[in-house]
Amino acid sequence: MDGSTPRTGPDRRLFDLGLLHDAASELSGLSTPQQIARAFLLTAMGGLGAVSGFILVTGAPDRDGRSDASDPLVLHRGLDEASAERLQDGAGAVRLDWLACGPGGRPPRQPHLIAASNLADDSPFPKDSRLLARWTLDGGSCGILGLGPKLGGPQRTPGYGPEDSSLLLNLVDCLVTALSRSMLTQRLAAMGQDLASRNTELDRRVFQQETLIQALGEMNSLTGSDDLLESFLLFLMGTAGCGHGFALLLDAAGQMAGFCGKGVDAGQMRALDPVRLRQTATRGLFSGGGRRVGWLDDPEQFAQIGLPPGYCGIWFLADENVYGFAGLGSRLDRAQLDDSQRETLLAVAGGFLTCLRTVRLLEATRKLNSELEARNLELQQTLDQITGYRIEIDGLERAKARIKEIIQREMDRVSLVSWVDFAILLTVSVAMGLLFNWASPSGVNLIPSHWSRPATDSVPVQEARGMLDKGQYVLVDARPSESFKQAHIPGAINLTPDLFDFLYGMRLAKQPKDKPVLIYGRTVSRLYDEDVAGLLARRGHKNVTLLAGGFQAWKQAGLPVQP
User: Fold this and answer.
1) pLDDT digits over 361-382, tens only?
2) By the 8 A CB rule, do 114 and 142 touch?
3) Alpha-carbon gap, residue 471 to 474, rounded angstroms
4) Which residues have a Cβ under 8 Å from the Cβ of 252 and sit 6 or more positions away?
5) Phi, psi (deg, nearest 5) at residue 239
6) Number of other residues whose CB lies within 10 A of the CB of residue 526
7) Per residue in 124-172, pLDDT tens?
8) What is the rounded distance in angstroms from the CA atom of residue 452 to the CA atom of residue 448?
9) Burial 15-36 (b: 16+ CB within 10 A, else e)
């Protein structure tokens, strides 16, 4: 399926999650902005079904790790030659006019859509652009992504819907993450080359940068949030040279979503105030220009939050639902962390946040798959149960038909019955009853059960009418379903003796056992109401009453009935 095929509901959500996961995985394996931008443009166009598209990044670092705002990165697919040339020639003006990264100000850091419906005639962007998204990275780098119309003929070209816009923003967020990681990695690599040519102190910093790159590589390969949190803490402790530390994750409600400690007991975190920790992180987010990680070593703030004394560490905000803190104890050499070491640790934390978003996306995908499998299993069990009930009902109906056929044949055989015939008929009936009881688990009573059953109390029609109007009774029609469908008292539920075990669970099992039950329905040949009354008594119902005169008495009193 490509982006032009409509998807709805769980299928669309699974497709979007799968596409985001594939994009994050693919981009994580690329190292340069050029490679990342080229792969991302193909992914976005394919996932959304666009026939054309372009990507423009200004201030992107070159192969040597240096940023050059005058030489933007421009890639495009599916554009005609004139549109491609106009885009390339106007790329320099885009930085000031569209990305607003010059003296006029800066756009929001978060990826967002901008209107593409009113493009000016002198705009460098293709005239058929349908979606435009822009973003800002650390270090002044900005970018814009544009997609043309979807696949389709001139008369049936589908448009982009809200779900497409949301998917595009999530994809751009993956791109921003990959570009940030790539630019950070290139800057770190460049720093490492510079430090290698200096003195012993600089050599130590090179080692720290190499450790950071290793941390990013290892954390990016993990697929579980617990493993990722532990790896993050170990790299922080190893880089800082600390003997003990902890890292914790909190959800939006302030509940512990993850904890890892080395030399620290989780019980020490019970005094933690999640509200103050979130406030600290939020203040740092706004005061730090949108940076989602920051250093914290103020003893007073530690005391207010409830963090252990004598620690320093890093607060971080993964998204609106997850935030946390990583604390480091004293260093083994008792020295203080300098600014360069703190920056290295903050960079590790930034890489951790990137990996955490990817892991949470994977976990959400696995959870959704698990929920769908559980629902499918539940539906299959329900179908199996219904099929079992149907088989049981069919067996009872066939047995009933066989008995009725035998009795009818014997009744039609002779017009006068002798004592011998009566004896033969009685013998055959008993034999058939025993045979049926042997073949059917439910069986039939060879001796009418009402002969030995105590009489059930009855209530006159008018008195029953008044109590039914007040809702004091559960009204039960014990006649066969054919008679019930022809006519019955309004509000009655059909509960026959033959299907009692099957129908009771669906229609009466949830009623309290002390709730009064009023039963009607009998014929000349069978007392259905007394049979059901006896079955209900076995089920524990303590207040069962018969309607005096049954259904006929109700109709003769002129009371309402319904088909």
Assistant:
1) 888 888 888 888 888 888 888 8
2) no
3) 8
4) 320, 321, 322
5) -70, -40
6) 16
7) 888 888 888 888 876 667 888 989 898 864 445 567 888 888 888 888 8
8) 8
9) bbbebbbebbebbbebebbbeb
